């Protein structure tokens, strides 16, 4: 069983807890007047039944439905809440990269810790949060809930998540538009690598469904700086047995130019569709980086 302490140190937990006031003011700005979502607690109107999933409170089971169907269903209600968040965690092979400056911390590990921090923060605020893990296809979908036991379900999934497989951001996102039908905040944790035009198109699809989007682009410093100097063996993290020995000095200028163009196109696309893009590096303390973002967001809210 996973615990918050498996992901976050006591000092980091304290720092995140201290962000709650700022975060509350930030997220209230996301959905002023647009706050209908399923929420556990005192409810005013019955909405629908849904099948029981691990982490749901037993007291929410509808025993009358069980008596008729021999299946467990939860009664959902409509209640106003400030935020309904789904964390989308990229577990494609490129997220396994871990350079020297990140002290051996892979992008996937960093993103999982950031996801844990966000889930903890949201649930501490009594908001609902869910988790999606994916590579070229959906791996796991945990719908947003706001109960305390739900954090354990998310942490367990983050604990066992391992990167692997090719990247397929655009296709997965287009499919998720149909899956995540209630509008809310989508927090995407990915390096963003792939066809940037297709990615921006998929993000625009989310926006057309009235979701707010926060894209945390998780990178290693090596990917932005290309610091290699000696002959180096480069291996594909997404396709087995693909590797090449190269002299980095012959490729550095071209690589850095292509990386700059990629970043510029992604930044422009996010700006065009009113998407928050936050680039984070694995050598940054995630609690500090999260604090900086929330402070900036609050300043312009």
Total DSSP E strands: 11
Query: Tally the helices: what do you get?
Result: 11
CATH superfamily of the largest domain: von Willebrand factor, type A domain
Q: The CATH topology of the largest domain, please?
A: Rossmann fold
Runs with pLDDT <50, length 5+?
21-45
Mean pLDDT: 80
- Structural class of the helices, strands and pairings? alpha/beta
CATH-defined architecture of the largest domain: 3-Layer(aba) Sandwich
Explain this structure to me?
There is one protein chain. It is built from eleven helices and eleven strands. About 8% of the residues have low confidence. With 301 residues, the protein is α/β, with parallel strands linked by helices. The chain folds into two domains: 253 residues, Rossmann fold (3-Layer(aba) Sandwich), CATH 3.40.50; 41 residues, no CATH class. 42% of the residues lie in helices and 23% in strands.
Task: Jot down its keywords.
2 domains, 42% helix, 301 residues, six-stranded mixed β-sheet, single chain, alpha/beta, three-stranded antiparallel β-sheet, Rossmann fold
